[in-house]
Amino acid sequence: MALYKGKYQKSPGWVKVIQWLGIMAVLTLVAMGVWLIIPCNHASTEALKWFQFMQTIGTFLLPPFICAWLWSENPLQWLHLASHQTSNIKHQTSPFLYGAAIVLMIVAMPGINLLADWNSRMVLPECMAGIEAWMKAQENAAMALTERFLAGTSIGVLVVNIGLMALLPACAEELTFRGVVMGLFNVERLTFSGKRAHVAVWVTAILFSAIHMQFYGFVPRMLLGALFGYALLWTGSLWVPIVMHFTNNCVTVVAYWCIYRTGINPETIETFGTGDTAWVGAVSIVLVGIGIYFFWRRSRQMRRASSRMSEGS
Q: Which of the four pLDDT bands, split at 50, 70 and 90, describes residue 85?
């Protein structure tokens, strides 16, 4: 395997895309095959959780590491998981940035609900009634499965759901979308700046939202994807968007668990920041905008300080 390390580093971008899709397809099929041969009731919640676990591993978690191994002599640096230097800037993070990322995501929850509520009111033309019915069916099925996974009041259920629905997808999806997909826009990995970087962020965000097949939450998920992408650009570390993604998912998992334990209507989580509390959602969006500005400014200050240190050494 060591012989293949960095072997395709100078290959054209389209070759790397084909390699990535091929590896992802093969590992996804392997994961599905393993799940199917396991003797169990495949319609049970536990079996479906195992299916999601193996599919996430095969589709999103393993392919980025294999691709990075094939495309770089320093796979972890290519994925922005290890400290590295681009141009004359040594990318660094700090506890402040991680703390700011966590707070930012918590504050954003009501605003996300408000945007999701607006997005859910989307109505297609009559000529697209069939497509609209399919989209609603996909949305309802995804929501039903999510609520089925989240149902439960034991500590064990909470721990499993945090791992399966917060930690694993945060790591796997960020490795795939912000790691591989954004990386393919900048094959030489020299710098994340300029128009190409913005294109990478937004194209990746659109793909990130589309892959979830939940069209009535497309806009807020796309904006979250863009935020994760810019967090990578500003800090140079994939760990920051991973922490943000994990926080977003974990807050929802814990909130549902608390609600099921207290018997409150689960819709309370989805509607906070809408309707009579829409003002909370609006304030949330404003605060997030301010938070993003200060997050960007702080990360820029750190990059400049690092650049001066590099020049002086």
A: low
Look at the alpha carbons of 202, 204, 207, 212 in this order and tell me if their dihedral is positive or negative: negative
DSSP letter for each residue of 202-234: HHHHHHHHHTTT-GGGHHHHHHHHHHHHHHHHH
Phi, psi (degrees; rounded to nearest 5) at 37: -85, -5
Q: Which residue has the tokens 């917060």?
A: 166
In sequence order, the 6+-apart residues with CB closer than 8 A to the CB of 289 are: none
Mark out the alpha helices in the chain (DSSP H runs): 13-37, 45-56, 62-71, 75-78, 95-120, 129-150, 155-162, 168-174, 182-184, 195-210, 218-235, 239-262, 267-271, 278-312
Residue 24's nearest CA partner among 53, 70, 69, 55 is 55
Q: Region 237-249: what's the mean pLDDT? A: 96
pLDDT tens digits, one per residue of 140-155: 888 888 888 988 889 9
Give the pLDDT band of residue 76 (cuts 50, 70, 90): very high
Residue partners of 112: CB distance under 8 A and separation at least 6: 220, 224, 248, 273, 284
Q: Cβ atoms within 10 A of the Cβ of 247, count? A: 21
Residue 89 has pLDDT above 50, yes or no: no
